[in-house]
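Quick review question:
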């Protein structure tokens, strides 16, 4: 196979990872819309997201493709298809999700190592939540958003946002991010890669490891997220719309069907490609 053919094949594989992650995570985010929230005192038990889906794929495949797919899936299926779009304000969540999943995927050198998969999952989740927390604190500090005190907590934005961070990390982060990854990543390793015509990741894979360039790109992305959210909160959202049918049951159902169809189509294509290569 020529170099150009190899590059084309690699790009095709990355695209498949992107679309698969986008559809599966988009479906998952819509599903979380249907899960009720419970509150005991000041502690809220809610499923913020099923981030284990993109985290798992990022640890097994190309981290950047999975990270961008997750952020795009959340934007398309849980925002646009539900009839709402926050304009520039959507960029903050898009970038922080991308960075969190990307970091987790890069941290895993050996997907068969359950400890490594679990640690990467919780670190990636914590990074995403921490970035969101910092942004929320800065919005109050720069007076672009009013501080809303929570009964039972000190009247400090640091205490309020810090508690929310720990609440989400210890509940959603452990139950719906870390634990599923600890089980799924080693379980799927070596089984799902052939469907894309790929070799399983090893410690020497180019997509493994954190280096100064990776850190610099993530920091730059986070700075852009901060600027975008501050600008949007200050009234510079550029494009901001909400349809009359926003977040209706019909919109959620249609979104789930579309996401499921895309995911199934990708899986079918992956299976056919795998069978074709096996035949050769």
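Suggested answer, residue by residue:
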């Amino acid at each position: 196979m020529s170099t150009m053919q190899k590059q084309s094949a690699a790009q095709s594989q990355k695209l498949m990872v992107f679309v698969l992650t986008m559809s599966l995570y988009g479906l998952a985010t819509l599903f979380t819309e249907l899960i009720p929230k419970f509150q005991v005192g000041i502690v809220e038990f809610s499923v913020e997201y099923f981030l284990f889906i993109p985290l798992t794929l990022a640890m097994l495949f190309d981290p950047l493709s999975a990270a961008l797919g997750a952020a795009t899936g959340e934007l398309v299926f849980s925002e646009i298809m539900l009839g709402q779009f926050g304009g520039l304000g959507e960029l903050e969540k898009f970038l922080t999700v991308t960075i969190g999943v990307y970091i987790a995927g890069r941290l895993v050198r050996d997907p068969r190592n359950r400890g490594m998969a679990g640690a990467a999952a919780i670190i990636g989740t914590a990074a995403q939540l921490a970035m969101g927390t910092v942004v929320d604190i800065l919005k109050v500090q720069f007076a672009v958003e009013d501080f809303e005190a929570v009964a039972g907590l000190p009247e400090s934005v640091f205490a309020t946002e810090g508690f929310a961070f720990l609440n989400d990390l210890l509940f959603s982060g452990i139950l719906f991010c870390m634990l599923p990854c600890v089980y799924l990543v080693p379980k799927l390793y070596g089984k799902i890669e052939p469907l894309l015509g790929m070799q399983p990741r090893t410690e020497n894979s180019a997509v493994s490891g954190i280096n100064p360039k990776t850190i610099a790109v993530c920091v730059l992305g986070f700075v852009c997220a901060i600027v975008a959210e501050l600008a949007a909160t200050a009234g510079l959202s550029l494009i901001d719309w909400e349809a009359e049918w926003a977040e209706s049951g019909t919109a959620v159902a249609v979104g789930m069907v579309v996401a499921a169809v895309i995911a199934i189509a990708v899986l079918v294509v992956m299976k056919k490609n795998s069978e074709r290569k096996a035949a050769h």
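Why it works: DSSP finds eight helices and four strands in the chain. The beta strands are 38-40, 43-45, 84-85, 241-242.
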